[in-house]
Amino acid sequence: MITSTIRFNLALPGQDPQENARRHQAVLPIAEQADAAGLTTISLEEHHGVVFDGRLQGWCASPITLGAAILARTQKVMVALWGIALPLHDPLRLAEDVATLDLLAPGRVVLTVNTGYRAAEYAAHDVDFGDRTRIFEAKLALLRQAWLGEPIAKGDEQVLVTPRPASQPHPMLLAGGANVDDAALAARVGLPFRPSADAAPLREAYEAACAEAGTNPLYLAPPPRVALIQVAEDPDRWWSQVGEHFLQEARVYDSWMRPGEHSAVHSTATTVDQLRAEGVYRVLTPDAAIAAARADRAIILHPFAGATPLALAEETADLFTRAVLPALG
Asked: What is the pLDDT of residues 208-255, one digit of tens each?
């Protein structure tokens, strides 16, 4: 099976409300058409208050809300809520929200929780960044308890959380992460681990921690080669239009990386030419995209990368849906 993914990152430097509305609204027909053509997954990532080069960027501040809209417009595609920083959330409200998604579209929601890695997001939510691991473990226990329908002590009250999810005991729940501490945490809490890269230190740390904790390892690594692509009939012309947008996103992401972290889509490029040679971001013709998907057994379309102009985002998504997805079976 070939896994086909559309990644929706809605960054927009300056955050003009009217343009932001157009971009958010464009997600829905793109998702609907791709779902009908056989897309397997839509990926949404949580980030808050992103500022880079002195400008507010945005990203995807409310993936659950956006995911609900996508699920309502689609029939089969999985909606993957990647990188939900659990310590920033009320676990009982998160249990309610995700259970509601699962009732609307049973079995089509994947929740990946992590401890996050941006101190600014913790400051914005009045959560102690230095205590995030302990907070994660405590909130994960409450999240699981809520989904099981068990009473939860809140002061003098015993609280029951509804609704129960359609998927039992709960929707697919993974732990994400980029370093060995994240891997060990996933093992300690008994969750499958979805690392941000298939790196030997992460695999080894997870498996060792599972053995120590007596939990069963389930290591769900991304493919060895991961590229974020757009599809165009003339890649050279397309690069001239979107290269600076790709570079903008790559520079933002690079600024977040810390020593000891691994990411399959981390770029250190400082120019468009370097970025193109590196291969993390690619522009492929439809035939080349089909060949790459068949070789890698996976493909990720990234139509809004780095605030790609809306008309170009819609054009590459349309070409991907019409000319690539039907050929993947």
From this structure: 999 999 999 999 999 878 899 999 999 999 999 999 999 999 999 999
| 248, 302 contact by CB (below 8 A) | no
pTM of the predicted model as reported, rounded to 2 decimal places:
0.96
For residue 113, give the DSSP letter: E
CB 242 within 8 A of CB 283: yes
The crossing angle, in degrees rounded to 10, of helices 200-213 and 180-188 is 30
Q: Which domain holds residue 246?
A: 3-328
Rounded Cα–Cα distance for residues 63 and 47 (Å): 9
253: number of CA atoms within 13 Å, CB side?
A: 24
Closest C-alpha to 9, from 83, 72, 97, 74: 83
CATH of the domain at 197: 3.20.20.30
With 0-12 / 13-18 / 19 or more C-beta atoms within 10 angstroms meaning exposed / middle / buried, residue 74 is: buried
Domains in the chain: how many in total?
Answer: 1
Q: Is the pLDDT of residue 282 over 90?
A: yes
Name the 3-class secondary structure at 262: coil
